Every structure is written in C-alpha cells, then in structure tokens.
C-alpha cells in the first residue's frame, strides 16, 4: 500500500462522521465516503499538497454529499414495517413494493436512529439532571 493511500485511509473515520452528520443516513454516508476515497485515490496527482489532506478530502466529500442528496430526492422510498403483510388478516395482495413500484424502507431503524441523536441542548439538560440527582442522594 502506498503512503498516500495509507494517509487517505487514515481519514476515513473523520469522513464517516462528517457525512453521517450531513446525510443522517449511515448507509448513504458510507457510500459517499467510499466514492470520496475512490476519487481521491484516482486523483492523487491532483493533490499538490498546497492544502491539508483532510481539507482536500472534505472538499471532495462535500460534492459527493450533494450528489447523494440529489439522488435521494429523486428516489421515492416508502416507510413501512414490512414489505406487505402476507397472511395477516387474510391479506392476499402483492407486496407493498410491487404495488407502489418503489423500495420499502423499514421504519424501525430510522426511528431508533432519530431517537438516539441528541442535540447539544438535550445533552446539557441530561447532564444537569444527572448533577441534580447526585445532589439529591
């Protein structure tokens, strides 16, 4: 492995965090980072060292994020618990994805991920509550 490739790969964790914060979708973030790393390795000669490697990679990633957002806005995904309900209450119809001609995206993981995200204010409130609990005991 080349030194440049090692340096680029060393920025992966930062790029994943950045992309996840922007896209709020771990799979889309991973895809954007993969595309960024491939573009960076293919364009190694374009990196002249005039800027920090992380800055250069982040610039590439920003373009990939914009592409991902455009792609996601064109795709229609339906949120559901399952792709159809065969056998439930006698349902005999086709899967939901077939009826809607669209992908079905399970909602449970999306909702769980949203519940796990905390704003700075929420974190402050949780910390303050914990401090008050310590004083009460």
In short:
This protein has 137 residues and is mainly alpha-helical. It contains seven helices and two strands. The longest helix has 22 residues, at 53-74.
* Overall geometric form: flat
State the low-pLDDT regions, or none: none
Assign the CATH class of the largest domain: Mainly Alpha
In CATH, the topology of the largest domain is named Rna Polymerase Sigma Factor, Chain: A
Number of strands: 2
Structural class: mainly alpha
Strand order of the largest sheet: 1-2
- Mean pLDDT comes to 80
Terminal Cα span: 56 Å
Strand content: 5-15%
Number of domains as seen in the coordinates? 2
Q: In DSSP terms, counting alpha (H) and pi (I) runs of 4 or more, how many helices?
A: 7
Protein traits:
mainly alpha, 2 strands, two-stranded parallel ribbon, 137 residues, 2 domains, 7 helices, Rna Polymerase Sigma Factor, Chain: A
Overview of this protein structure:
The chain has 137 residues and is mostly helical. The chain folds into two domains: 1-75, Rna Polymerase Sigma Factor, Chain: A (Orthogonal Bundle), CATH 1.10.1740; 106-137. Helix content is 66%, strand content 6%. The chain has helices at 3-10, 12-23, 26-42, 53-74, 96-100, 107-116, 120-136; strands at residues 77-80, 103-106. Strands 1-2 form a two-stranded parallel ribbon. Strand 1 (77-80), helix 5 (96-100) and strand 2 form a beta-alpha-beta unit. Helix 2 packs across helix 3 (26-42), helix 2 runs parallel beside helix 4 and helix 3 packs across helix 4. It starts with a helix and ends with a helix. The relative contact order is 0.09.
């Amino acid at each position: 492995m080349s030194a440049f490739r090692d340096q680029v790969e060393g920025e992966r964790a930062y790029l994943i965090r950045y992309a996840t914060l922007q896209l709020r979708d771990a799979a889309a973030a991973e895809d954007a980072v993969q595309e960024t790393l491939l573009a960076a390795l293919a364009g190694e000669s374009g990196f002249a060292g005039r800027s920090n490697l992380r800055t250069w990679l982040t610039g590439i990633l920003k373009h990939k994020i914009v592409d991902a957002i455009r792609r996601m806005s064109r795709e229609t995904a339906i949120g559901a618990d399952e792709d159809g309900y065969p056998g439930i209450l006698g349902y005999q119809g086709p899967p939901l994805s077939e009826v809607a001609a669209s992908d079905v995206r399970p909602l449970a993981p999306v909702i769980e991920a949203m519940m796990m995200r905390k704003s700075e204010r929420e974190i402050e409130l949780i910390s303050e509550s914990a401090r008050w609990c310590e004083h009460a005991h």
